[in-house]
Write a structure and sequence with these properties.
The structure is a single chain. The protein is built from 13 helices and 22 strands. The chain is α+β, with helices and mostly antiparallel strands. Strands 2-1-9-8-7-6-5-4-3 form a 9-stranded mixed beta sheet. Strands 12-13-14-15 form a 4-stranded antiparallel beta sheet. β14 and β15 form a beta hairpin. The two termini are 19 Å apart.
């Protein structure tokens, strides 16, 4: 079995320069002395954590272990997106002169040193820079109780308030954020309307498989829609929701491509106090940055399991499935968190097998991802395997919404017959047999090349009856399966 190589290296062409720019940018934002003092006083400060991670990457020539891959790639690429609209070359002059207004400049400098405000300020700077990049005249606010941004369109002004909300926060919180923006916009213009610009901060390993609004973002979208269909917050004519996602494309003997996207959704108030100055399409935010990684060397330590909330991606799963063109943990978490279909097969009162399917439109070839997990009663599912199934659009549409059919398709394509007791077939749902001799399995693979087989089964041994209760037994030809991934 091909192991996942332990050393991951960023593509050297330009990426080391980007890492250096991000380090220099943080040093210029705080100056070296302030950053050192900040690390001493607030080691949990987001800027301190980012600075330490970037320095670690630079000190190790851009190399890191596979367990760190997603988090470090997303941190670096997210920094590229965040700084793309406003950060300047920090090598010359006073850094914060990028903000023309002295009062706004001092307001920003005061707030970035506080851990609870830093990410909010970065969001404000991102939107401020984005608006300016779109040709708008935009100004940062500097007063408490007033909106964060003023935008001039022709001879008219509108106001925008920036909020940041973390996934995991009660979705109803977004209604309060819109209400607060409404109050601040009214304070600035009692008769006019403005916008709430809200970034939904997603954390964790979930890779995009298509362009749908992610399931962890959808509750906030629905709550925002509720607020905008009510008689409240009528000074907020539009809400712009942004979030980041990423997809991964990997091919045999090729670098792995990460594409990190900042996406947006614009919502309109049904009963706004006045018409917005600009059409909602003008507020669409869409930015993408890409990162290439290479694998080098051989595995010297086991991959850690990943606790992703709804599912645990086990160490055994990762070691079996995370090869260059295989199934990554982020894809499994996404498929399990937002499946096209999911079904549980109860084996007994305290144990189930779970199958989840999710159609993937992104990647080298469209496919359906089939994930299998085992679920002890009262515990979260633990992944045991993941497979990519290719086919025509019609075939993929069918198996995406029928995990049982997807599993049968997998068996029909790649399974070898097995023998369990008196039963022979591609799949044995249950058979009770006498305990085999020590060191042997109760399931016998009948494939012509036993080295290419992987036998899967759930079984329980009874010392009282000296029998083995075998459930869900089958054997796959991994050589044939992996060959299908690179055709």
């Amino acid at each position: 079995m091909e192991p996942l190589e332990p050393i991951v290296r960023y593509d050297p062409a330009g990426l080391r320069d980007e890492l250096s720019r991000q380090v220099a940018n943080l040093e210029a934002m705080f100056d070296n002395a302030s950053l050192a003092a900040l690390a001493e006083e607030h080691p949990e400060h987001p800027a301190v954590e980012r600075y330490s991670a970037l320095q670690h990457l630079l000190n190790h020539d851009g190399s890191y272990s596979p367990d760190e891959e997603s988090s470090l790639v997303l941190m670096t690429a997210g920094g590229m997106v965040d700084r793309s609209t406003w950060a300047v070359d920090p090598s010359g002059g006073e850094y914060w002169d990028i903000i023309p207004d002295p009062a706004a400049r001092e307001f920003v400098r005061t707030r970035i040193g506080l851990p609870k405000f830093y990410e909010d300020v970065v969001s404000e700077l991102f939107y401020w820079g984005w608006l300016r990049s779109q040709g708008f005249e935009a100004y940062l606010g500097e007063e408490q109780g007033m909106p964060d941004l003023q935008v001039i369109v022709g001879d008219r002004a509108t106001w925008a308030d920036v909020k940041r909300i973390h996934v995991g926060t009660n979705p109803s919180r977004i209604r309060r954020d819109i209400g607060k923006a409404n109050s601040q916009i009214k304070q600035a213009d009692t008769e006019g309307v403005g916008l709430a610009l809200i970034h939904v901060d997603r954390r964790g390993a979930r890779a995009s498989l298509d362009d749908r609004v992610p399931s962890d973002v959808r509750p906030y979208v629905e709550e925002a829609k509720r607020e905008l269909s009510s008689d409240s917050s009528k000074s907020v004519a539009q809400v712009v929701l942004t979030w980041d996602d990423y997809f991964v494309i990997s091919e045999l003997d090729q670098p792995c491509l990460y594409a990190v996207r900042r996406r947006s959704l614009v919502l309109e108030h049904k009963r706004a106090r006045a018409e917005p100055i600009l059409l909602s399409a003008a507020w669409d935010v869409g930015l993408t940055t890409t990162v290439w990684t290479h694998y080098e060397g051989r595995s010297s330590s086991p991959l850690a399991s990943i606790d992703a909330g709804k599912v645990v991606v086990t160490q055994a799963f990762r070691e079996q499935n995370e090869f260059t063109y295989g199934v990554r943990a982020g894809h499994v978490v996404e498929a399990f968190s937002d499946p096209n279909a999911l079904i549980r097969y109860k084996l007994d009162d305290d144990y189930s097998v779970v199958l989840a399917t999710r159609r993937a439109h992104m990647g080298r070839r469209p496919h359906v991802l089939l994930v299998r997990a085992h679920e002890p009663a009262g515990k979260r599912p633990e992944t045991t395997a993941g497979y990519k199934l290719y086919g025509t659009d019609e075939e993929l549409a069918k198996i995406a919404h029928d995990p049982g059919l997807a599993f049968r398709t997998l068996l029909n394509r790649f399974a070898f017959p097995i023998r369990v007791g008196q039963q022979v077939g591609l799949f044995i749902p249950r058979e009770i047999v006498q305990q085999p001799a020590e060191g042997t399995w109760p399931v016998v693979g009948l494939g012509s090349d036993p080295d290419s087989l992987t036998i899967e089964a759930v079984f329980r041994t009874s010392e009282e009856t000296k029998t083995v209760d075998v459930r869900w037994a089958f054997a796959l030809d991994l050589t044939a399966y992996r060959r299908s991934l690179v055709v």
